[in-house]
Structures are given as C-alpha cells and as structure tokens.
C-alpha cells in the first residue's frame, strides 16, 4: 500500500464521513454497489451540529466558575438547540454513523483516526461528503493499515471496485481542494 500511496495526489480535508464495517460472512454479491448520490443539505447540517454539540458538551462538563443559574441556563439552551437540530434533520436519511473528520484522501483511498483497532483485511462501506459539494460518494474499502497513534488508531483504507463516476468525482474534488489551498497560500499575508 505504501507504493500505492505515492501514485496519487493526496489532500488533508474536513469531510462528513460515514464508516461501517461489513460482516465478513457477507457474500460479495450482497455488498452495496459503490456510486455517487445527491446530498441533502440536512446531511451536512447534521454532521456540523454533531461536531458543535460534542464541543459544547465538553465545555459544559467542565466545572463552571460562574453562578449556578448561569450554568443551568447554558444547559437548557444546549438542550433546546439539540431539539431543534433533531427536528431539522429527522426527515433526512442519515445513515449509521455520521461524523465530521479530518481525513487524508486520495483517488485510491483514505486514512483517518478511530478510537479502536480494526483488523486488516476487513471490508467497510464509506460514505464521503465534502462540505462544498452537493454530491456524496459511497465506496467499498478494505482496511490495509491500522496503526496506534497515542490514544487513537490511524486507519488506512483502500477503495475497491470504484466506478468511473466516483473516481472522476474524487479527482475533481481533490484538484479543487489543491487549487483552493494554493490560492490560500498565495493570499496569506505571512508569505509576503
């Protein structure tokens, strides 16, 4: 896989990610077909709200130095936002495990951090949605690498049976991200 990693352009990017391990007993003909799909705006909204909610809960779990009523007010406002978020995204097909992650992505695969180790060779369904895209990509992937990095594990996945439409969409998104990064570097006043 190390040699394959050098054959593709790679980017580090925040994406909405769904990752689900496939039962090893499942016959290849039963696996869902890879492809692209139209993304509901609620999908990204849900992923962003989940990320914000995790940060808010982390802050609320810390002891507050303010008065008790202020802490209670903040908790109630957080609960209110949770209810609004659930109602906004309830009608969307949200899938099994949406999260927003920083991934290292190429045309051939991706890597990201996960809390637990996963055995090499396991197959998974991966759904990716880039924040600027209205298209999602559903792919089959095989776990090729699992390395412990402090408290997390870095997974390296290789895409399998990728249709040309998915490959084209990935290449387009990677090139767009590289262009955006290039423009950002040249517009950065620290470079002058």
Give the overall silhouette: globular
Please tell me how large the radius of gyration is.
19 Å
Strand content: 25-35%
Q: What is the end-to-end distance? A: 39 Å
Overall average pLDDT: 76
- Share of residues in helices: 25-40%
Number of helices: 4
For the largest sheet, list the strands in their spatial order. Answer: 1-3-4-7-6-5
Largest sheet: 6 strands, antiparallel, barrel
Q: Give the total of beta strands.
A: 7
Provide the structure class.
alpha+beta
Tell me what the structure shows:
- The chain is of the alpha+beta class and 192 residues long.
- Helices cover 38% and strands 32% of the residues.
- The protein is built from four helices and seven strands; from the N terminus they run αββααβββββα.
- It has helices spanning 2-6, 41-61, 68-89, 164-187; strands spanning 10-21, 35-38, 98-106, 109-114, 123-129, 135-149, 152-160.
- The chain has a six-stranded antiparallel β-barrel with strand order 1-3-4-7-6-5.
- A hairpin with a 5-residue loop joins strand 5 and strand 6.
- The protein is globular.
- It starts with a helix and ends in a 5-residue tail after the last helix.
- Mean pLDDT is 76; it is low at 1-5 and 91-96.
């Amino acid at each position: 896989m190390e040699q394959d990693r050098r054959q593709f352009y790679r980017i580090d990017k925040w994406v909405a990610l769904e990752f689900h391990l496939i039962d090893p007993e499942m016959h290849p003909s039963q696996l869902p077909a890879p492809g692209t799909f139209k993304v509901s705006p609620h999908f990204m909204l849900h992923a962003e709200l989940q990320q914000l909610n995790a940060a808010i809960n982390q802050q609320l779990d810390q002891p507050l130095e303010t008065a008790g009523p202020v802490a209670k007010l903040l908790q109630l406002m957080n609960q209110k936002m949770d209810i609004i978020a659930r109602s906004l995204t309830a009608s969307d097909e949200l899938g099994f495990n949406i999260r927003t992650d920083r991934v290292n992505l190429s045309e051939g695969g991706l890597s990201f951090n996960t809390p637990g180790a996963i055995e090499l060779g396991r197959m998974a369904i991966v759904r990716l949605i880039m924040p600027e895209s209205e298209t999602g990509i559903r792919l089959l992937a095989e776990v090729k690498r699992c390395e412990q990095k402090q408290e997390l594990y870095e997974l390296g996945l290789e895409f399998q049976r990728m249709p040309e439409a998915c490959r084209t969409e990935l290449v387009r998104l990677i090139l767009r991200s590289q262009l955006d990064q290039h423009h950002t570097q040249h517009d950065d006043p620290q470079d002058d």
